[in-house]
């Protein structure tokens, strides 16, 4: 598990390899990740957007940005958590993801970024 705290918001990430698939005549490696967002601050916050940088071992880089996470813009009061699962496909059996969430402090309307720590995506058979 990878974890990081930014401005009282703790991000925890767990990953797993789901298998291989063919897409457009190319082998694709499917990964699943579960993210838990925990509000350890004294403020109520809302996640409004996400930004990802996804890299694979073949130097392919993909950037993904959008509103919320899996259709939600969770509001977290102090001590609350929000967990979700998602996934990605890579063209190599290992890679990494990193990024940030754009959040807003609902007590004072200030926007801030929460770092999503770099986490690795590794197919079981590709690990020495």
UniProtKB/TrEMBL annotation:
<protein>
    <submittedName>
        <fullName>ApaG domain-containing protein</fullName>
    </submittedName>
</protein>
<dbReference type="InterPro" id="IPR050718">
    <property type="entry name" value="ApaG-like"/>
</dbReference>
<dbReference type="InterPro" id="IPR007474">
    <property type="entry name" value="ApaG_domain"/>
</dbReference>
<dbReference type="InterPro" id="IPR036767">
    <property type="entry name" value="ApaG_sf"/>
</dbReference>
<feature type="domain" description="ApaG">
    <location>
        <begin position="3"/>
        <end position="128"/>
    </location>
</feature>
<dbReference type="Pfam" id="PF04379">
    <property type="entry name" value="DUF525"/>
</dbReference>
């Amino acid at each position: 598990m990878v974890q990081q705290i930014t401005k009282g918001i703790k991000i925890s990430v767990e990953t797993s390899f789901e298998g291989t698939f063919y897409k457009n005549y190319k082998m694709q490696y499917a990964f699943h990740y579960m993210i838990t967002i925990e509000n350890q601050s004294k403020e109520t916050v809302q996640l409004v957007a996400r930004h990802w940088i996804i890299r694979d071992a073949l130097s392919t880089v993909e950037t993904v940005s959008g509103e919320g996470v899996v259709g939600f813009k969770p509001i977290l009061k102090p001590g609350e958590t929000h967990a979700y699962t998602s996934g990605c496909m890579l063209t190599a059996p290992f890679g990494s993801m990193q990024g940030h969430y754009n959040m807003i402090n609902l007590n004072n309307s200030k926007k801030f970024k929460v770092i999503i720590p770099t986490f690795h995506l590794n197919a079981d058979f590709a690990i020495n």
